[in-house]
Design a protein that fits this description.
Helices cover 26% and strands 19% of the residues. It is α+β, with helices and mostly antiparallel strands and 73 residues long. The protein has a two-stranded antiparallel sheet. β1 and β2 form a beta hairpin. The radius of gyration is 15 Å and the shape is flat. The two termini are 24 Å apart.
């Protein structure tokens, strides 16, 4: 990740999600790139639902990493 980036990537043992949902998001650093993979059982989650969660998560990350705009807290 770039110098000054407010995100820290730490290696941890990956679980398989909670027993209630079986939904998990694996994230890892590949040099300067943050990679992600959603894991979920198709009988429990529609691909469109996971895609919506992915878009929302990426939007949150982009907002976190975006330069601050003047006048916006």
């Amino acid at each position: 990740l770039a110098d000054g980036c407010p995100v820290e990537v730490r290696a941890t043992a990956a679980g398989t999600g909670s027993a209630a949902t079986r939904l998990s998001l694996l994230c890892w650093s590949d040099g300067p790139v943050l990679r992600m993979a959603w894991n979920f059982p198709a009988p429990l989650f529609a691909r469109t639902t996971v895609a919506r969660l992915d878009r929302a998560f990426r939007a949150e990350l982009a907002a976190l990493l975006a330069p601050e705009e003047p006048g916006v807290p």
